[in-house]
Amino acid sequence: MTSTASHGRTDVSSGTPRLGVAMVGHAFMGNAHSQAWRTAPRFFDLLLRPDLAVLVGRDPDRSAHAADRLGWASAETDWRRVVERDDIGLVDICTPGDTHAEIAVAALEAGKHVLCEKPLANSVVEAEAMAEAASAAASRGVRSMVGFTYRRVPAVGLARRLVAEGRIGRIRHVRAQYLQDWLADPAVPMSWRLRKDKAGSGALGDIGAHIIDLTQYITGRHITGVSALLETFVHERPLPGQSSPTATGGALSGAGGEGTGEVTVDDAAVFVGRFDGGALATFEATRFALGRKNAIRIEINGSQGSLAFDFEDMNVLEFFDGTDPAPTAGFRRILVTEPEHPYVAAWWPPGHGLGYEHGFVHQVVDLVNAIASGEDPAPSFADGLRVQRVLDAVQRSAAAHSAWTEIPADGR
């Protein structure tokens, strides 16, 4: 197989080869990915036209309803049958982490390109197997990518560009936070995200993985060691469907569900680290920061300047130029909506901001055009493995009472 194989028919009206896409999973991420697959070819010139061929879910009725609602041509309940189909060229994995490795490896071995949600896996062993399968598949022209979509926020792309151009000099400090509050109420019921066997870890892998990837992406550097603390604040939660009092005196009600379930993952992670090149770093990931809904906060201090980004003001990048004269020096608020900024030219006039969903669209654009061009997209499964090694080091450090834990450059 070559990387330009479309596994689908040609769009007669445009002459653009089609790429048959199958999506496994249709919850939160499935919704976001579906919108992106539908929207990307309408705003960007894609070298392959995505064909939303089949959505895969466990329940036939729910899957059929989701397929109809989200714009997929059909529904299926067995991903194995989908992987065998000749009309499918790409498998998009939007399932809990415990299924990523099995689906991704099978799809790659069957010659299907793969997009897999983050974190890549639930363990380093699984991530290594996925990276090895991706490397073997790449030699046959089969591409793979892990879904760290925040890389595709235009302000983040601009930050990476400024660092690469040397605008802030040598990097000295990296500060990263991912703050949410959706679990702060002890009455919020159990979900798969609170089970280690399904999710691998809690806030660490769910949202901490994003800031690990973002800081490495923006700086072009790798984390080499960490010292960490993990904490679980609420150890038991009501099972889904059980009526439970909320912090405001209401109820979370529904059919079925009795008793409580044990939370087996972390609620919050805090760790310090060091990057190759010597920069110091602090990281915080929590789902208990009341008032913070989706606050990804990155600040990078260099020898000649600083950058600051907050996703809750996602169209803005703050830039401090240390070469400015002191009387007029200060952080510059850059509204990242100009056509010269990453991805923006395909969208709206300057000042008309983008939103959360646009990162997923940009992900589709980069992936599809890389496949058509015979190039390896980024972030690769190898990049996902590197993040997985950091997650693993954080867990091992916390278990060893914050002991400094190295992450060798060769990954061993």
Using the alpha-carbon principal axes, give the shape.
globular
Share in helix: 25-40%
**Roughly what is the average pLDDT, rounded to an integer?**
93
Q: Over the alpha carbons, how many angstroms does the gyration radius reach?
A: 22 Å
> Which parts are unreliable, with pLDDT below 50 for 5 consecutive residues or more?
1-6, 242-256
Q: For the largest sheet, list the strands in their spatial order.
A: 18-17-16-15-7-14-13-8-19
- Strand-pairing-aware structural class: alpha/beta
Descriptive report:
31% of the residues lie in helices and 24% in strands. The chain has 412 residues and is of the alpha/beta class. The strands form four sheets. Strands 18-17-16-15-7-14-13-8-19 form a nine-stranded mixed beta sheet. Strands 3-2-1-4-5-6 form a six-stranded parallel beta sheet, with helices on both faces. Strands 9-12 form a two-stranded antiparallel sheet. Strand 4, helix 4 (100-109) and strand 5 form a beta-alpha-beta unit. Helix 1 (28-43) crosses helix 9. The protein is globular and about 65 Å long. Residues 1-6 and 242-256 have low confidence and may be disordered.
